[in-house]
Design a protein that fits this description.
By secondary structure, the protein is mostly helical. Helix content is about 90%, strand content about 0%.
């Protein structure tokens, strides 16, 4: 963590992964409000993780052939753009169950494309003797985000539901 560029990238990685896990929980939760079909709710996770299986190898090849910094930036922009589109669609009231699956799949594409390039960038940022520590820190970031993301999504959803219920009961 003494390397400023690695520290910045690691914090970005942690934050991005927390957002990814929050998105997965929020998308499944949102699907339950769009449909009562358990299949559709289960398909949210499929749409999120299928791109990893479909694009893992091609993404690794791209990470080895393209400029890694630009490629990583492009994947982050893809995910951010997808989030903006989802936000606009939800805000406008246009969201349907199939559209949520499509946007979740598109988000999964961005996530699947960024993992290999991030792994390829790390050895360029730290000296070989610090690589084990950097890889360990990446494991910590991934596992911590697996806990923090769903907790944050649940807390956000719960507080929003409480506010919604209290404003509904006041309106009566």
């Amino acid at each position: 963590m003494q390397r400023p560029v690695f520290r910045m990238l690691w914090l970005t990685w942690l934050t991005s992964n927390v957002g990814m896990w929050m998105n997965d929980v929020a998308a499944a939760w949102l699907m339950t409000s769009l449909t009562t079909s358990p299949i559709m709710v289960a398909l949210v996770q499929t749409a999120s993780s299928a791109p990893v299986f479909l694009l893992g190898v091609p993404s690794g090849a791209l990470a080895d052939t393209l400029d890694r910094r630009h490629y990583y930036l492009a994947t982050q922009c893809w995910v951010a753009f997808n989030a903006i589109v989802l936000f606009i669609v939800v805000l406008a009231g246009w969201l349907t169950a199939p559209l949520l699956l499509l946007l979740t799949f598109a988000n999964g594409i961005g996530m699947a494309m960024r993992w290999p390039v991030y792994s390829a960038i790390v050895p360029e940022l730290v000296p070989r003797e610090e690589l084990h520590a950097a890889i360990g820190l990446n494991g910590i970031a991934m596992n911590a985000s697996r806990v923090l993301g769903p907790v944050a999504a649940g807390a956000t959803s719960t507080s929003r539901c409480r506010r919604s219920r209290s404003s509904t009961s006041r309106a009566r």
